[in-house]
Design goal:
Distance between the termini: 24 Å
Protein name: Porin family protein
CATH topology: Porin
Number of helices: 3
Number of strands: 10
CATH architecture: Beta Barrel
Keywords: Signal
CATH class: Mainly Beta
Order of helices and strands: HEEEEEHEEHEEE
InterPro entries: Beta-barrel_OMP_2, OMP/PagP_B-barrel
Radius of gyration: 21 Å
Organism: Flavobacterium suzhouense
Largest sheet: 10 strands, antiparallel
Shape: elongated
Number of domains: 1
Pfam families: OMP_b-brl_2
Structural class: mainly beta
Amino acid sequence: MKKLFLYILLVTGLCAHAQFGTQVFSKDPIVNLENFDKQRVHWGYFLGFNSYDFKFDYINDPKVDIELKKSTGFNVGLVGNLRLFEYLDLRFEPGLYYTQRDLTFHNVEGTTADKLREVKSTYLHFPLLLKFSSKRTGNVRPYLVGGVSRSLNLSSNFNVKDDNMTGARFRMKKWTNYYEIGAGVDLYFEFFKFSPSIRGVFSLNDEIIRDNDPNSPYTGNIESMKTRGIFINFTFH
């Protein structure tokens, strides 16, 4: 799946690159899609990458922090854009986000398998964002974006009774709320608009489900665990 995803991005990038010099960044470019942003509503889709992290707060200072290993996941989704004013749009970007984070609990006695928890997450992500665009220059228009979002973790183990102590199951809450902030640029081509962007995502609530034993070496000393993430998306309209 990842190889197919990278192949799609590569082919799309090569096709777009053929138009970059003459239609977007040339000294006197032909103005493409001149009235595109005047539409009241328009749609698109995005492909991208993500890197999720956890921020841990502890009840007591641990001798050794929980070690976290991140990986690069992928994103895919749809974009709905509502024009509010000339420089302000409201966007809804529902998407599917896949990632994995590996946690190593060094304070746990036992084998490497006892210490390691692979946290695989598949999120349905629902952001509602405000897009603040600058004045368009030729075929380029930078923008800032920010807003709030909510996600459903399909791999949370929320309903599983076994925990880290009884079944080696790391459990998280199903729903999480976030705030998001980022930046991007709209590039106008002859037949479509291409918008690469980068966005930071920060959880507003504690996501961990603690083990049944309040003294569990896995969760007993965790005051809160909140997701942080970086999204890099390539949007096509």
